[in-house]
Amino acid sequence: MTSLNGYFMSYQKTASALLASYKYVEPFAAYLKKYFKQHHKFGSRDRKVISDFCYGFFRIGKSADQYSLEDQLQIGFFLTHSQDNGYLALVQPSWIDELTNSIDLKLNFIRSIYSSFDVTKIFPFSAQVDAALDPDQFRKSHLIKPSFFIRIRPGRYDVVMNKLKEANIDFKEINPSCLLINGHSNLENLLEVNADYVVQDFNSQKTQTFLPELKDDSFPIWDACAGGGGKSILLHDTYKQSDLYVSDLRETILVDLKLRLKQAKIRATNIFNVDLESKDANSLIIKSIPKKGFRLILADVPCSGSGTWGRNPESLRYFDQHDLVVFHQKQVSIIKTLIPFLQKGGFLLYVTCSVFTIENDEVIDIIVKDTPLKMVKRGILTENASNLQGDTLYAALLTLEA
What we know:
By secondary structure, this protein is of the alpha/beta class. Helices cover 39% and strands 16% of the residues. The N and C termini lie far apart (71 Å).
């Protein structure tokens, strides 16, 4: 095997050391950020190449675990790139002519060299995923970096489009509110983040199609597991006159969420911290919400995140499928906690960024069987995701009959 030299020798050595020391206790992006903060010698190009090596390794999952780390870095680079940056020219020059081939041909090429390479181990959980997904296509989608999407806020279309065109930003208009931004454009220098646009995945935006049509001018709605607040802003933009309540388990998340809502020029009626599985959850909720309850509750519940592993591919290597039972129980518990605060005739929208049936349909089946909630519609949000390289989500709209 051709020996490395110069910068690429250093990059591969650093990437190997990072991967060997990473313990999967935090997102790799956070781990990487800390590392580079401690080691100022790495410039922007250095950081980009080293990060690229690491993510290529994660994207192939455990498909080549029987081979050396060096082999896996090379396989990962080959399968996740269509152009060489000089790395393959040093380590595997005979592979360069294969770089522009289809992913199927590239996988066949790798198997011709590494006979034990097993593509099914990129995502080895196919038996547990939603039947609407093509396991082979979904597995291979992890080899491609997901696209970057924004949602244009109401009334800001002309401002956003004009400024993007003036700055020669490369983008594709998916629909009048959704844009796919190509390259590594820094939009924050052009537009007001959260005021003009929201960074939000294509299929996350599509959860809006599950929201019910509510005609009253003003009514209370609750984003009960708000996280970063993207769907809180979506709720406000859909029901502009509503009274928005927002909560989350994590106080640190709520600090960031408050800033984001301020940037979006949204004033929530109340933002509060609550653990929806705690013994005192009911009393905390009662103190924080209107007495009449809610017309709509959004529950974007904690989950495996398997529909977003294209963005966080380290999960392909460490996820323990036994955790799915824990997530399932947590999800059922949270929904049952929320039901008493839903008005008669009101709606509950259940959302996960998971592809696993146990977190999706199996949760909803139990809720419909054991509670007064009735099904309105449900489904996996994956249409066009493979073409656009978006996340995969699941949504189910339920109602409490009057």
